[in-house]
Amino acid sequence: MSASKSWRDFQVETPLLDALRLCANQPHAAFYTPGHKRGVGIAPSLAELLGTAVFRADLTELAELDALFAPDGVIRSAQELAAAAFGAEQTWFLVNGSTSGIIAAILATCGTGDKIILPRNVHSSAIAALILSGAIPIFVLPEYDPILDIAHSITPAAVADALKQHPDAKAVMMVYPTYYGVCGDVGAIARLAHQYNIPLLVDEAHGSHFAFHPDLPTSALSAGADLTVQSIHKTLAGMTQASMLHVQGNRIDRNRLSKALQLVQSTSPSYILLASLDAARQQMALHGEALMTKTLQLADAAIKQIQQIRRLSVLSSVKIPIFSTLDRTRLTVTVSGLGLTGFEVDDIFYQYLGVTAEFASLQHLTFIISLGNTEADIEQLVQAFTTLTTEYRRPPYPPAVVPLCTSTPLLSPREAFFAPTEILPIEQAKSRICAELICPYPPGIPVLLPGEVITKSALDYLQQIQTMGGVISGCADATLKTLKVLTL
What we know:
This protein is an alpha+beta fold. It has helices at residues 7-11, 15-24, 44-50, 53-56, 74-86, 97-109, 124-133, 156-165, 186-195, 232-235, 254-264, 271-307, 342-353, 375-391, 413-418, 456-467, and strands at 90-94, 115-119, 136-140, 144-145, 150-151, 171-175, 182-183, 200-203, 227-230, 243-247, 313-314, 325-326, 330-334, 359-360, 364-368, 421-425, 439-440, 472-473, 482-486. The protein has 16 helices and 19 strands. The strands form six sheets. A seven-stranded mixed β-sheet has the order 1-10-9-8-6-2-3, sandwiched between helices. It has a four-stranded antiparallel β-sheet with strand order 11-13-15-14. A hairpin with a 3-residue loop joins strand 14 (359-360) and strand 15 (364-368). Helix 12 packs across helix 14. The longest helix is centred in the middle third of the chain and has 37 residues, at 271-307. The protein is globular.
């Protein structure tokens, strides 16, 4: 960094966005992909919805725009600026979402037969990585609140026990924060992993904003994580599917990581997505603290007002495990006291009250409050809950809950995925080995994994979610009347 330029002076720059702007506005005859040729051939109905400027910027890997897999120009500069802003030693831009980053992280650290310690409430992308890599999962059960039916983070004690039993593990992975905004003791878990000289990989998809305000949970990197994957589109201003992977230290083979990313990312990356990462980074580097201050004020206002509404409760720091922290911008409201499921409330909000949640579960609705929300949004949310409690209330019901699977998989996810299978009626699938990755979505946390024994409680839970309006993904039979199992 030049002595005449400050950190802020560099963060003002948007090298990739600037290069894309120049290319988009340069008149020339285009004989390269994409086929719509800078919007000239785009379908009129799509142009009417989105305008024409976006299609002029929908360009391929032109010389001025650098190459994602071998960056030495504007992409490299943009990634270096992002690393500085987010506190990393090196950053990679992702156009296939955090899913590609999670898969690449496991591919870069684990091979066939290698063990990795990870939570049972891990995202389905990590299970996909186990299938692709052949790694063996050592599942650690997170702390679980049976009253609220919420799985929190894994604990340092549980990780320490897993490491003691499996000292040959190649990596530890944790989810930070969880979908409900709960952040475990990432610093303690990083120290435990480093005692065995293995890396801590962090699925920080919902925590990309943590680095920009002191009143938010600490970022995974600042707490000692070796690798973290962040969905810039989820809580910041990147476009959907635009994410980043950050690395620090020497426990990650960065060359192997780059090669792994080439396996799971498109060879035709969207420069619109890449440029949105450059712009979002600049926005947060220059104005992040002010934006997060406003976001926290909105969140606190929502929490205060909703807590005053009878028969509703809000997930708060006093309701989460010790040594955990809560992201206040993630608002989870328990609605079971109204005699309604979260799925029913979600439908009422969407159909009649003009509010859409991030996701619903049996007892709860969860909302993401971000830099894009306004005071009017909060007012509408509070009014929706007020209307709900006066017009849609029913006698409370005792919610049925089921903890996460506690059994050890009989086969690795990869073995089960490629094994011979058959399809059985669901009532005959109990005690058979699952061949599918089945989970309510969102949040995308599997209830059944390839290689696990199918239990009655898991089947009951999935059927209850579907009956009450939830969406089940991953099963070949969307009606959930049949399941794919391993052939005996």
